[in-house]
Structure formats: structure tokens, C-alpha cells
Amino acid sequence: FKSKDSDAFESVLRKIDEAQLQVRQLRTRMDKVVREHAGKFTSNGSSFAHDDPTANCAPNSVLPHVNIEKTPFTSVCTTSQHGPVTPGPDMVESTEQPRIEGKCEKTGNG
Fold first, then answer.
1. What ranges does the record give for the region Disordered, renumbered to this chain (predicted)?
2. What's the domain range around 46?
């Protein structure tokens, strides 16, 4: 019985680690886009400039900055007692929310 609880706990830890990895990857991608298109942001960095046709696609709809290093969880990848982590389904792609396209689509400028 105790082994079953331990397996469930390990599964939760793996899922947390996978989610943290996805957050780090998305944050890296977001930081790269912000750096590449810094001129399109206002001085406070919270929204696109008003003359930009993508103004309603401001990053304020994105999760706030998360410091992964200060989370209370230890990565299972850095703990030798855990086996390899097998990636689960893409949590972003597996949500059943419709994609919004249109003004947010990439244009020919970059």
C-alpha cells in the first residue's frame, strides 16, 4: 500500500518538474521575443506601442515573471534517486481552448 502512495507522489513530482521545464522554455522564448522587438514596447515594457497593429496582443496577457530557482520544489532531474522523466502530453497544446489568430499572426517583418 505504501508503495502505491510513493508511486503517486513520484508521478506528481515528475509532472511538476515537466511543468517547470515548460515554464522555463516559454519564459526563454518570451524574453527572446521581447529583446528582438524591444522598440515595439512602451517604456514600462507592459504593452506594445499604440501605433502598432498588434497592440491588443500585449504581453500583459502572459503569466507574470516566475523565478523558478526560488520555487519550493526540488527538480526531480537533479535528484539521483529518481529515474528519467518521460515527457507527458504538451500541456499547452492539450488544452481545449480555441486559438486566437488574426492581428497576432507573424508578419513579414521578422
1. 78-110
2. 2-78
